[in-house]
Design brief:
The structure is a single chain. The protein has about 350 residues and is α+β, with helices and mostly antiparallel strands. The protein folds into 2 domains: about 10-190, Spore Coat Polysaccharide Biosynthesis Protein SpsA, Chain A, CATH 3.90.550.10; about 195-350, 2-Layer Sandwich (60s Ribosomal Protein L30, Chain: A). About 35% of the residues lie in helices and about 25% in strands. The structure holds magnesium ion. Magnesium ion binds next to strand 10 and helix 7.
Length: about 350
Amino acid sequence: MRAAPGAMVVPVIHKDDLDLYRSSAASFGASSSLARPVFGGATRQASARLGLEALASQKSLPEIVLIHDAARLFVSDTLVERAITAAKTHGAAIPGVKLSDTIKEIDAEGFVTATPPRALFRAVQTPQAFRFDLILAAHRNAAAMGVLDLTDDATVAEWAGHRVHVFAGEDINMKVTTAEDLSVAEARLLRDLADIRTGQGYDVHAFGPGSHVWLGGVKIAHDHGLVGHSDADVLSHAITDALLGALAEGDIGSHFPPSDPQWRGAASRIFLAAAAAKVRARGGAISHIDATVVCERPKLGPHRDAIRASIANIVEVPVERVAIKATTSERLGFTGREEGIASLAIATIRLPL
Ligand code: MG
């Protein structure tokens, strides 16, 4: 979910999830609207209150706050806009959808005792939207009175005596809580990323004096080095170009010109990570990377797993989505004469249609 201009997002997380949170947040790029995470409490009610207290400690207090469950990852911009409008109008408002299933009330033995008319009911979602002062006071009062078992913020507002308006939610705004929900969500995400593209990359660097080469971000001892403006990581360069090619966004030279002194001796993982970040910035995902290194020496077999793991780490995909192959050129040509190393790569990415 993107923050509206002037808005701030306060993430409330479990303290054990801090490393996971940091790595996830980093992959979305630095955002000035994302505040430092707040550690939650033992219940949803406590966690929401702690998030509100973090906002209350800001210099300028917000007029409206939306409290959202991150397990609802398909929340849309239009739903957020509806929530803000409803909170401004009503003070307390929540999204709700009509029920398609008939509802039965049952007794302890599992027998139906009543069939209420389903038109009277709504299944409610988040973001739940409030005037900030209203919901902060309601949460503070509930906590002070020892009322700690309210399961959503609307219930906190109701407990405090406020009328809560229900506006139209969205069926797609599902909550992902079970393994089955997760596979439904993944299928939907992949369906949305239907623009499948491939890009190719090719690079060569010559051998020169040195004691090691860099390949895929891994330092490999050798009786020569590779010559280049950066660290001459020929494999990372080929993969970077393949990703940029799949995006149709120029090549490594146009983004990181060799004429720019800041890239002298640079670690090529910077280029590779930047290309992967461009895919994510377009709302896309890297499906697969397949690369080949062509050289007589050094022998890459012993390093292959380390190189795969390194590239997967740099571009932030599972290692199963990275293939690294090595071949010689049967002593033919410049690679056969051990004048340098060549590398080829193909990247497959998925972008939103
Ligand atoms: Mg290069």
